[in-house]
């Protein structure tokens, strides 16, 4: 069963939601029959690729809130993250466009490393205060999860991965997604936001039960005989 997750690596609740979802999935008895697919989403494509302001100043301007209000909001988010084992240093966050980071994710997905890319980018942005629009930084983050450096450099100039990002964003619009994180279970159920683990567990159970009815597990009664296996054994 497929679970698709729309996310932006600059969204603090996306990282928190990822942790709560992972906890639910780890506890799910049929987790080996679940495929998780990460999808790109940009909360603010207008942010420049060169940092011009702190996250605090950015939120004051974007939300029209007072500085003390913003400070309280960031403190709340930091505390919420701590409850799920995440260490946020939001005062260090470098506010830059996330487009190139999504290109990295799209490339990593072709290598089966989409989840690892999401995790590394979240950590880089929220904990380490790294610039996720800087090619040198992104290349190193890609190498950290096992991607090839020369392939990475090509990925940032290849339109394929930018187009893949745009397709994800358009798909989100078609589904009516206006905010992230947004989790879609078997294209039948959705969980919006960084919900508690219990909410993910309940949706997992409900959606998988229905999916299994339509996709019954095949169990063969096998008569064993001499054969050769993929590991080179013949007996």
Q: Can you walk through the features of this model?
A:
With 235 residues, the chain is α+β, with helices and mostly antiparallel strands. It has a single domain, classed as Glutaredoxin, CATH 3.40.30. The chain contains nine helices and four strands; from the N terminus they run βαβαααααααββα. It has a four-stranded mixed β-sheet with strand order 2-1-3-4, with helices on both faces. α1 links the parallel β1 and β2. α1 packs across α9. It is globular and about 75 Å long. The model has no long low-confidence stretch (mean pLDDT 95).
Summarize the structure.
By secondary structure, the chain is of the alpha+beta class. It contains 9 helices and 4 strands; from the N terminus they run βαβαααααααββα.
What key attributes describe this structure?
235 residues, alpha+beta, Glutaredoxin, 9 helices, 51% helix
């Amino acid at each position: 069963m497929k679970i698709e997750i729309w996310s932006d690596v600059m969204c603090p609740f996306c990282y928190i939601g990822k942790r709560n979802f992972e906890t639910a999935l780890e506890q799910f008895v049929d987790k080996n029959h679940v495929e998780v697919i990460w999808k790109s989403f940009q909360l603010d494509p207008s942010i420049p690729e060169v940092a011009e302001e702190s996250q605090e100043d950015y939120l004051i301007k974007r939300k029209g809130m007072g500085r003390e209000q913003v400070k309280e909001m960031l403190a709340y988010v930091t505390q919420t993250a701590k409850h799920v084992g995440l260490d946020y240093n939001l005062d260090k966050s470098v506010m830059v466009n996330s487009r190139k980071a999504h290109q990295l994710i799209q490339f990593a997905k072709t290598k089966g490393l989409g989840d690892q890319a999401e995790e590394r980018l979240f950590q880089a942005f929220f904990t380490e205060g790294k610039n996720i629009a800087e090619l040198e930084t992104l290349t190193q983050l890609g190498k950290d999860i096992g991607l090839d450096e020369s392939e990475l450099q090509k990925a940032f100039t290849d339109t394929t991965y930018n187009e893949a990002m745009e397709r994800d964003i358009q798909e989100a619009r078609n589904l009516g997604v206006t905010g992230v994180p947004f989790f879609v279970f078997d294209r039948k159920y959705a969980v919006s936001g960084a919900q508690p683990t219990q909410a993910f567990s309940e949706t997992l159970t409900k959606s998988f039960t229905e999916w299994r009815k339509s996709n019954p597990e095949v169990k063969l009664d096998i008569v064993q005989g001499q054969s050769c296996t993929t590991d080179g054994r013949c007996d």
